[in-house]
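Notebook B, p. 112. Complex prediction, attempt 2.
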Amino acid sequence: MQRRDILGLAGAIGAAAALPGVANAQRSLEEGRFPKPSGKYKRIGTEAAFATQPQLDGFRDIGKYLAEGADLSFTQILLGDSDYAKDMTPRLLNIGEGRIAEMDDGGVAMQVLSLTSPGVQLFSADTAVSIARESNDILAEAIAKHPSRFAGLAALSPQDPKRAVVEMERAVTRLGLNGFIVNSHTDGHYLDEEQNWPILEAAEALGRPIYIHPRSLPETSIAPFRPYGLGGASWGYAVETGTHGMRLLFSGVFDRFPNLKIVLGHMGEGIPYWVYRFDHMYETARRNWGTGGLVNTPSFYLKRNMMITTSGMFSESVLKYCLEVIGPDNIMWAADYPYQNNREAAAFLDAAAIPETQKIQIYSGNAERIFHLN
Amino acid sequence: MQRRDILGLAGAIGAAAALPGVANAQRSLEEGRFPKPSGKYKRIGTEAAFATQPQLDGFRDIGKYLAEGADLSFTQILLGDSDYAKDMTPRLLNIGEGRIAEMDDGGVAMQVLSLTSPGVQLFSADTAVSIARESNDILAEAIAKHPSRFAGLAALSPQDPKRAVVEMERAVTRLGLNGFIVNSHTDGHYLDEEQNWPILEAAEALGRPIYIHPRSLPETSIAPFRPYGLGGASWGYAVETGTHGMRLLFSGVFDRFPNLKIVLGHMGEGIPYWVYRFDHMYETARRNWGTGGLVNTPSFYLKRNMMITTSGMFSESVLKYCLEVIGPDNIMWAADYPYQNNREAAAFLDAAAIPETQKIQIYSGNAERIFHLN
């Protein structure tokens, strides 16, 4: 979009510009497409990104030293002066009145905030530990100012699992945060690997879920996925994050940590589509080759230990499919603000032809239970 | 399973052993779980693997020289003396009476045969061209002997697109074959890449579809997908083949070759789950960054240029979802014989609560149209 188009547009729709801290063009464009949601539901957005200045400074620093990779490109976009960055970055940084005004406009009662992807996972261990801590403090302050509107997930540093666990304990017991956010792999390593078990153990012991948010595939693996922009939100993010979920399901960590809860966005990152097949192939491999070792079928753990959210997947067909194969207790509403549109996310679920009791579970009941929001 | 168990089992269920050319244990075990299908439908299995001796000899030769990779491990299993190989390899090699007896047992009227994955794609270009040609000749002979029971897809060598095109023309105009099989990437290259356009152009010109069958991800990319056996049928095959499909959808090849038809097994290798999101993200990227370049949305090409099959995905929930998002004209029945069970594949569709007219389309009508089976 050309700069003058934005100005023209902003002039034509002055109302949007009145919202504090909000750049106008893209947001206003999207707003116009969907009605303002009714006040009928208490909508809790379980995937809602924010950024902190220490995090953006960290991105700026590594951008000076690292070759361009997929995640890094994205972080550099947020630091740049494109129209997209001018719209998005201030909204990510705003965890006060500006954000609340947009939540009101989108019919969102509460957001469960999480540090935008890839969180602190591109940094060196020391930097990651430090920026996670600073960012969690900033998050806790924002929640303290608006406790009825914000909850939050703590950032942590899988680069250093021991120090991650220290921060996890602090985040729950001292800061009162509601869970944890991990942006899929860290330098090609996944949470099912033994060095990360202390993180899983801590999450279970603290009774708080880990939300596994997308990021790009490891640079060493991304070649087939990169053309035509497929490395990102159209496909590659789901491959990466779905793979992370599948590794957890097949690894046995849910036998080891039976009360651990993992949250996946984007309607489960594709995993629910495959329930029939992966159970079947798991069983076939066990019969033919003696592989396996899980106490139950992989789908058992999907239903017992995982929650999925609607972030960025505002499809009634997918929702109904997921209700059928994993049930209404395991699905939570999310918009993926500010990257996706609150109004659209609400319009989709408001209009879905599913029982009212299920809508309430998905909008608020499941999130209140899983994130201890009461 | 121990060898004496097999013998004991075979003794107990003598009927199965009477089928010619069929090893007994696994098959009989599976058979017992599902009833013999009714004769109500003309069932055309659109994904049915076979092997040829030249192909197996080729696998044996490269096994001597190459490091172990995921595909190569599988081909070496077929050459080995495990119970699995003793059951599977003879069934793959049998494209005569033995196979027909199993088809009768499973209620299958016709199989569209294709050279088992990874086809000729592990070989050097010269070997691939030669084994594809030999195997296509063997296939055409089998069809000539049983024209009402078999149709077939020609193997081809993307290692050498020019010679692949020569073989494609011969396969259709001289041998009367019904389409083509490509087992996803060839040495990390995909059909959307310009050097492979002649293959797409030939398929379009000849009016025959290309079935993109799974194989393992390229060795250079597979690391995150490999643990717990996830590199194969439980997950990695779908990632690889779904990525191939997405590359085709986003690359513009369907604007260039508007009548090209691509077939994907396993209910579309996950792509249908993502229809909402990839259209949305494609549009978002185009608006923000001026990317794109397709005449239509990606899902338009999914519906116009792609067919999916039920191979290995005998889930009524997935079927209904796919009927909703891509429609009954684009779905074909397949069992994935001999790797999956004919009876189970039939029981699933026989029992599905969908209109009778759609069942007939899926069982036979769509396949007859796409593969020119009349």
